[in-house]
From TrEMBL:
Protein name: Protein kinase domain-containing protein
Superkingdom: Eukaryota
All copies of domain Protein kinase, residue ranges: 14-204
Cited Gene3D superfamilies: Transferase(Phosphotransferase) domain 1
Similarity-based family: Belongs to the protein kinase superfamily. Ser/Thr protein kinase family. GCN2 subfamily.
Biological source species: Streblomastix strix
InterPro entries assigned: CC_SR_Kinase, Kinase-like_dom_sf, Prot_kinase_dom, Protein_kinase_ATP_BS, Ser/Thr_kinase_AS
GO cellular component: cytoplasm; nucleus
Keywords: ATP-binding, Kinase, Nucleotide-binding, Serine/threonine-protein kinase, Transferase
PANTHER family given in the database record: EUKARYOTIC TRANSLATION INITIATION FACTOR 2-ALPHA KINASE EIF2-ALPHA KINASE -RELATED (PTHR11042)
Entry keyword annotation includes Transferase: yes
High-level lineage: Eukaryota, Metamonada, Preaxostyla, Oxymonadida, Streblomastigidae
GO molecular function: ATP binding; protein serine/threonine kinase activity
Pfam families cross-referenced by the UniProt entry: Pkinase
Annotated residues for binding of ATP: K42
Length: 204
């Protein structure tokens, strides 16, 4: 099956370097592309594609507008449709996710480093919310870390917009979205009107 993913990438003129993630949706590869250079691509099998995939792309396009541009939000680059996969290209982050900090608690980080990362995430969330969107799945695995080569700096970037939606207090949401234990208490009550406060709770 891995060959089918890589063959699809080659057909779309991506050169696969290595697989860097996988999930129920499909796989994520580090690739090279003549126009996009080094980037990451999320590959979703067509039969697994759903409205969340299109919502992710639509939210990403909205966030690319100049007035919402923010270095602490992951940039999505292109959407390609092959015969078997939807392929979403995005900037590559070379330090994995924020989960790496909790997985290695025996490596202490200075408090000023943690404060700097938190400030970046809060600024990213502020910019995200300025679009009128609610992320609905803020968690460690959806905060990517990137250190530009030679910079000596680390940037946190909010990613994965598959559950993002516009705030609409007039329409009650009838289904629960998110990841326990990062979900706010109001998401388990009825009527359930989802606001940007649920993202703040998840981050806190």
């Amino acid at each position: 099956m891995a060959n089918s993913y890589e063959n699809a990438l080659l057909m779309e003129r991506f050169v696969p370097i290595r697989q860097i993630g996988r999930g129920s949706f499909g796989r994520v590869y580090l690739v090279y592309h003549v126009k996009l250079s080094i980037c990451a691509v999320k590959m979703i099998e067509n039969q697994e594609s759903n409205k969340n995939d299109m919502r992710e792309w639509e939210s990403a396009i909205y966030l690319l507008k100049e007035q919402f541009s923010c270095p602490f939000i992951l940039k999505y680059l292109e959407l390609d449709n092959s015969h078997f996969f939807d392929i979403i290209s995005m900037e590559y982050c070379n330090l994995k996710t924020l989960s790496i900090i909790s997985k290695f608690p025996y490596i202490p980080l200075p408090s000023f480093t943690l404060r700097a990362l938190m400030k970046q995430i809060l600024e990213g969330l502020r910019a995200f919310h300025s679009t009128g969107l609610v992320h609905r799945d803020i968690k460690r695995d959806n905060i990517l870390l990137h250190s530009p080569p030679g910079s000596g700096r680390v940037y946190a970037k909010i990613s994965d917009f598959g559950l993002a939606k516009k705030v609409d207090l007039n329409n009650e949401q009838t289904y629960i979205s998110g990841t326990i234990p990062f979900m706010a208490p109001e998401l388990f009550k009825k009527p359930m009107n989802v606001t940007q406060k649920v993202d703040v709770y998840a981050l806190g």
